[in-house]
Design brief:
Length: 733
C-alpha cells in the first residue's frame, strides 16, 4: 500500500497528527461520558451478559470453531473488561436498573469501540514533539507494547495455557493451601468449571432458539416461547392480539422474542459456591476463598483512575463480581487464564519468591528439552553446558545436536513487569536487555566458539570432550531464544529495536519466541528438517526483512511460502497479521474437542517423498539436505516437477545419444550458497550413474557464490524409491 502521507511535507504531516490527536481526545472524553451515562441508567449485569454472549462466544461444528462474519456482533474481550471495570467504579445505589434495549446495547458497543480506538490515537501528537529518529523509535515501541497490553490476551492456545500453568503453579499447591485456603489447582479447576458451565448454558440457549426459529408460523413461535417461559397459554394469545403479529415479519418477531429473552442472560453467568463445591468435589470453604481472592464488589474501583483502566485494569486479576453474600457473577473466566502468570506469581511471591523464580527457571529448561526430544528423539541434548570464552566461564542453557546441525537454545524465565507492559521506557529497556539481548549475546558467543573449533580442528579445548559429537560432523549452527512469558510480540522481530539505540553494535538477531509458540512450532511441523529450515530462515530474515505480525503469523506465512522471499522488495514491510488463521482454527478446534486436519506447509509430492525417504534413511547430513530442499518455494517445487517430467521424456527418447540432456541444474541467486541438480538415468545406462552425478556437481559448483551443491539422481525405470542417490558436494575453495 502506498503511504497516504507521502505527498505531504513535514509541517503538513505534523498538522495531520495533531488534528487526529485532538479529535481523538474529544472522542475519548465523549465516549467515556456515554458509557457512564448508560451504566447509571441501565442494568450493567444484563449489559455485561449480552456483550459477552454475543461478542465473546463462537460456535463449534463438525468443521471446528466457526469464524465470525463481518456482520456478526463485533466486540472484543478487552472492550468488555473495560466496561466491567467502569461499572465497578459505581456503588450499587448509583447503578442503573432499567433493562437495556437492543438500541442501548448498540450505543454501548459504539462507545466502547470509540473509546478504545481514541485512547491510542490521542497520543499521536507526541511524535510531532520529538526531533531524533531514535526518540521516535522508542515512542513507537512504547505504543506497540501499549497496544498489545490493551488488546491482546492470548499467550498460547488454551490447552497450552492450562498445562503450562498447572505444571508451574501446581508445584506450590501445598504452600498456597496453607496460606490462602486454596491451591493453584483449586483456582484453575474452578475457573475451568465456570467456563464449562457457561459453554453448556450458551449451547443450550442456541439449541432452544434454533428450534424456535424453525417454527412453521408466527403463532407457533409465540406459543412455544411462552411455553419456554412457563407462562400460561392464554397469555400468549393475549400478546398476539395486543401486538398484532400479522403485521410483523417473522424475522423481526423472532428478534423481538430473542431480545426479550436476553434480559435473563445474567442468570447464565451467576454462580453459587455451594453448587460449585459439589461439582468440584471440594469443601465449600475452598470455593469461597477462591471467589474472595478473585472478585470485586460494585464500588470497589470508585477511587481507581479511569485513565489507568486501559493498561492496568484491576479485573485482569479479579474478573469476578460479588453480588450479595452468596452470589457471584463472571462473564469471562478466560481472563483468569489470560493473566494467570500475574495473578499466581503475586500469590506465591508473597510467601516464597525465591522458590518461584527457581521453579520457573527449571521448568522452562525441562519443558524445552521435552519439546525437542518429542520431535527429535534421536537428538543429543546437553543442558547447562559450561564453557570458556576469552578467559571467562559461561553457561549455555542447552545445546542439542541432530545429524550435522547444532541448535543452541537460551531460555529466559524472568517476569515481564506491569510497568514494562505499559511502556515505561526504563523498565522496558531493562527487560529487553535481560530477556531478549542477554541470551542472544550468550548464544552468539558459543556459536563463534564452536565455529572457531570447527575451523581449527587441531586446536585443543576442554569443550570438545564435553560434547557428545565430534565437531568435524557439525556443519550448521542455529541459535534460538525461548522466554516463558510473551513480550508483546517484540521478541519475534527484535531487529525493529535497532533504531531505538538499545541494541549493542555487535548484536545479531536470532529467532526468539515464548514457550507456547516454541511448542506449537515443534508440533505443527512434523518433519524435523522443516523445523530446522524454519529456524534457519528466521535467523536469516531477522534484520533483513521488515514485517508486522507475531510468531504464529510467521508460522502461517511459512505454510504458504516456506519463507522463500527472493523476489521481495527489500524496502517493503510485510503485513502478515492474521496469517495464523489456519493454525488458530486447528488448535482452537482441537481444544474444543473437534478433530480437523492439521495445517501443513505447502510442498509438492516429489519433494515430500524425497524428504520422507531422507529422514527414514538417516543419511549423513540429511538435515542439511532437507533444509536445502525446503528453500524452494511451493511454486518453484511445482515448476521443478514439471521440468523433470519433460526431462524424463527426453531421456526415454535419447538415453543412448552421447551428451543427451538428462539433468536439471538450478544455480541460485547471488545471495545463496546452494545449487541443486537433479539427474535422470535408466536401467540401460545405470553404469554411467557416477559419471552423470559428478558432472552435475561440477556444473552446480561452478558459480563463485556456490559453496555447496545438492545432487539427486533417480533411476526413472524404478519408482520404488523417491531417489536412488542423494549427496552434498562442497566447493574446493
Amino acid at each position: 500500500m502506498p503511504n497516504p502521507l507521502s505527498d505531504l511535507n513535514y509541517d503538513e504531516r505534523k498538522q495531520v497528527f495533531q488534528e487526529i490527536a485532538q479529535n481523538s481526545e474529544k472522542a475519548f472524553q465523549e465516549s467515556l461520558s456515554k458509557i457512564s451515562e448508560i451504566t447509571k441508567h441501565y442494568d450493567p449485569i444484563t449489559l455485561l451478559a449480552i456483550l459477552s454472549t454475543y461478542g465473546l462466544t463462537v460456535g463449534v461444528g463438525d468443521k471446528g470453531i466457526q469464524k465470525k462474519k463481518d456482520s456478526d456482533f463485533q466486540i472484543y474481550q478487552s472492550y468488555v473488561e473495560l466496561f466491567q471495570a467502569i461499572a465497578l467504579q459505581f456503588k450499587p445505589d448509583d447503578l442503573g436498573i432499567h433493562p437495556p434495549s437492543p438500541e442501548v446495547v448498540q450505543e454501548l458497543m459504539d462507545a466502547l469501540t470509540s473509546v478504545m480506538r481514541a485512547f491510542s490515537y490521542r497520543r499521536l501528537n507526541i511524535l510531532t514533539e520529538l526531533d531524533s529518529d531514535e526518540e521516535k523509535s522508542v515512542v513507537l515501541l512504547q505504543e506497540m507494547i501499549r497496544g498489545n497490553t490493551q488488546i491482546v490476551r492470548n499467550w498460547g492456545y488454551f490447552s497450552q495455557v492450562k498445562s503450562i500453568s498447572q505444571e508451574i503453579y501446581g508445584h506450590f499447591d501445598g504452600l498456597l493451601l496453607a496460606n490462602y485456603g486454596f491451591s493453584a489447582s483449586n483456582a484453575i479447576a474452578l475457573f475451568l468449571l465456570l467456563m464449562k458451565k457457561i459453554e453448556v448454558a450458551n449451547s443450550d440457549r442456541h439449541q432452544i432458539f434454533s428450534k424456535l426459529y424453525k417454527s412453521k408460523s408466527k403463532e407457533e413461535l409465540i406459543s412455544k416461547y411462552y411455553e419456554l417461559m412457563k407462562e400460561p397459554a392464554e397469555h400468549s394469545q393475549t400478546f398476539m392480539e395486543r401486538i398484532d403479529i400479522k403485521s410483523i415479519p417473522f424475522k423481526s418477531l423472532f428478534a423481538l422474542v430473542l431480545s426479550h429473552y436476553d434480559l435473563r442472560l445474567g442468570d447464565t453467568y451467576e454462580f453459587y459456591p455451594e453448587d460449585l463445591a459439589i461439582d468440584l468435589g471440594v469443601d465449600e470453604a475452598i470455593v469461597r476463598k477462591v471467589f474472595e481472592n478473585f472478585s470485586y464488589e460494585f464500588g470497589d474501583l470508585e477511587a481507581h483512575e479511569t485513565e489507568y483502566l486501559f493498561l492496568s485494569n484491576p479485573i485482569w486479576v479479579r474478573p469476578i463480581i460479588k453480588i450479595g453474600n452468596d452470589k457471584y457473577f463472571c462473564v469471562f473466566p478466560l481472563v483468569f487464564f489470560s493473566f494467570i502468570f500475574h495473578s499466581l506469581n503475586s500469590l506465591v511471591e508473597e510467601i516464597d519468591a525465591e522458590s518461584l523464580s527457581q521453579r520457573r527457571s527449571e521448568y522452562l529448561q525441562e519443558k524445552v528439552v521435552e519439546i525437542i526430544k518429542r520431535r527429535f528423539p534421536e537428538s543429543k541434548t546437553i543442558p547447562g553446558l559450561k564453557w570458556n570464552f576469552h578467559g571467562t566461564e559461561y553457561e549455555t542453557d542447552l545445546i542439542t545436536f541432530l545429524d550435522s546441525h547444532a541448535i543452541i537454545v537460551e531460555v529466559k524465565s524472568g517476569k515481564i513487569t506491569d510497568p514494562a507492559l505499559r511502556g515505561a521506557p526504563a523498565r522496558l529497556k531493562k527487560h529487553i536487555e535481560e530477556i531478549l539481548v542477554a541470551p542472544n549475546l550468550q548464544s552468539k558467543r558459543l556459536k563463534e566458539k564452536l565455529e572457531d573449533l570447527i575451523n581449527n580442528p587441531g586446536k585443543a579445548d576442554p569443550l570438545r570432550k564435553k560434547l557428545p559429537v565430534g565437531l568435524n560432523d557439525i556443519h550448521k549452527i542455529i541459535r534460538v531464544s525461548v522466554s516463558l512469558e510473551d513480550f508483546g510480540s517484540i521478541q519475534c522481530n527484535i531487529s525493529e529495536l535497532s533504531e531505538t539505540g538499545w541494541l549493542p553494535d555487535d548484536f545479531k538477531p536470532c529467532p526468539t519466541m515464548n514457550l507456547a509458540d516454541f511448542e506449537t512450532l515443534f508440533d505443527f511441523l512434523e518433519h524435523p528438517v522443516q523445523i530446522l529450515h524454519y529456524l534457519e530462515m528466521r535467523q536469516e530474515m531477522e534484520g533483513s526483512i521488515r514485517y508486522t505480525g507475531d510468531e504464529l503469523d510467521l508460522m502461517g506465512f511459512y505454510i504458504q511460502t516456506l519463507f522463500n522471499l527472493d523476489n521481495l522488495d527489500p524496502t517493503a514491510n510485510l503485513v502478515i497479521s492474521e496469517m495464523s488463521s489456519p493454525l488458530d482454527h486447528f488448535y482452537n478446534s482441537r481444544d474444543a474437542g473437534v478433530d480437523i486436519p492439521k495445517p501443513k506447509p505447502v510442498i509438492s509430492r516429489l519433494f515430500s517423498r524425497i524428504i520422507t525417504q531422507l529422514e527414514n534413511r538417516n543419511t549423513p547430513r540429511w538435515t542439511e539436505i532437507g533444509v536445502i530442499l525446503n528453500r524452494f518455494s511451493p511454486e518453484d517445487q511445482r515448476q521443478i516437477e514439471r521440468k523433470i517430467e519433460k526431462l524424463k521424456s527426453n531421456v526415454r527418447k535419447k538415453w543412448m545419444v552421447e551428451g543427451h540432456k538428462n539433468m536439471l541444474v538450478l544455480v541460485p541467486p547471488k545471495n545463496s550458497e546452494y545449487a541443486f541438480c537433479y539427474v535422470l538415468y535408466n536401467d540401460k545406462n545405470e553404469n554411467r550413474k557416477k559419471e552423470f552425478i559428478e558432472g552435475a556437481a561440477r556444473i552446480g559448483l561452478d558459480p563463485d557464490n556456490v559453496k555447496r551443491c545438492l545432487v539427486i539422481a533417480k533411476n526413472m525405470d524404478r519408482d520404488d524409491l523417491a531417489y536412488h542417490f542423494i549427496g552434498m558436494f562442497n566447493s574446493a575453495v
